[in-house]
Amino acid sequence: xxxxxVQAVSAxxxxxxxxxxxxxxxxxxxxxxxxxxxFARLPADQRAGVLLVTQTGISNFVAWFGEPGETxxxxxxxxxxxxxxxxxxxxxRQTVDLVRIATEVMEExxxxxxxxxxxxxxxxxxxxxxxxxxxxxxxxxxxxAAETRGAWDARQEALVVDGVIRGETDDALVSRAxxxxxxxxxxxxxxxxxxxxxxxxEAAEVLSEMRRxxxxxxxxxxxxxxxxxxxxxxxEPRGRAAGDPDRALAPIVADFGPGPVVVGxxxxxxxxxxxxxxAALAGLRAAPGWPDAPRPVDADELLPERAVAGDPTAVRGxxxxxxAPVEAAGGELLRTLAAYLEGGGSLExxxxxxxxxxxxxxxxxxxVSELTxxxxxxxxxxxxxxxxxxxxxxxxxxxxx
Length: 401
Description:
17 helices; Alpha-Beta Plaits; mainly alpha; DNA binding
């Protein structure tokens, strides 16, 4: 808005406006304290910031009358000099309430300074435009602050995800995660897969939908796109027993791109999440070895494929979850399991090879299932068990049957 849009005021009126700016700003501050109880409870530095913005806005408003053809600078200058964190400490609603109060004070005190009726109408109209302009300026400031905050949060989020992948889960990373609202002590799992096929804004919307799904499930999530893989850090709900299927993951998994989605084991907290990330990434590399794997698939369900792909952690996992408990139980269980698997899965053939009754073989296989959670009669479980036997033999030559 330029001065040519309204009738100019006299020099005498302009001087009265200039002299009134200090008292007007003080009157605005007093009205804010009276009209908004929360304002009086603000720290002194925040009230001072509001006064500074008010004084600058009024001064620019008055100066505008003395500069024909100039645009009103309050939108550019009044908020520029505000403390950097003022927009974060006051909500947009609170700021709008303060702008309304300041406008009402100006409507009451400025028009009576006019020399005649035309000037009075000019001031009334100008104050109304002032309120509109300052409200637009406030909205712009908050929009910019939100955009800046969003960009900063996204950067911190990417750094946290990258730190977990790299194993740089020190105090600095935990602190960085806390600044964006993450609970560093919450149990967490790492999920990896391919990012959405559509790039640009559509992919950004899909990632936002992932966050919304997690929020509705009462979980926190950090998302990172690293080239051809999408990495999620997802908090684990309290009270869910280990091994229970997490069906709530389905809507989140649906937002991944095509191909396998692998979920790492539960880590106690963010600082320990690197192990979950390693397992998930190793599982993602090995997943093509099991084309019929579910989606998502736990990284521990891919131990055979990971072991074949050269993952030493998977080799140890197979030995510790299968060979060690069966061997510790004794009673010819390990020898019976090997004979059954290597004999083609024939109960009678295994019994003849071991010179025992078939019921003895049944009992021993049932004990193996109780110890390992895997049944030698199930094709997938049999594959895991046989790979575990091989891993045990290679780990300790001569110690296994």
